[in-house]
Amino acid sequence: MRKPVTIFILLFLISSNTIAQEWHKGGTLHNKNLLEWKNASEKNKLATSGDWIVALFNKKRIPLGTLNDIKEKAKEIRKCTNNRINKFKSNNNLRGLKANEIAYKCMKDKKYF
User: Fold this and answer.
1) Over 90: is that where the pLDDT of 45 sits?
2) Nearest Cα residue to 63 out of 53, 72, 71
3) For a surface tag, which of 2, 54, 55, 101 has the fewest beta carbons within 10 Å of its beta carbon?
């Protein structure tokens, strides 16, 4: 009985590690409005934020660092964008603005460039 439990735990750890390494895939919010951002999953927001970081750093020729460095910056941008969006009192105001505009302001405020 011990072998199946050990195998199950091992498979769980392997799959969890693979999922953790996939954080940067599946971002679809690049040109979406703020309401779409607000309603999206945190994983999608993180992946999209990572894409924005990579695009900006490549454009400005800033060294990216490791994948973990990018993830930490992406988390900061996701949090900043979420916080700014949550300040809007009405969802009607969220349709006219793009999430990438807010994220760009967050990156500028954090002095990423």
Assistant:
1) yes
2) 53
3) 2
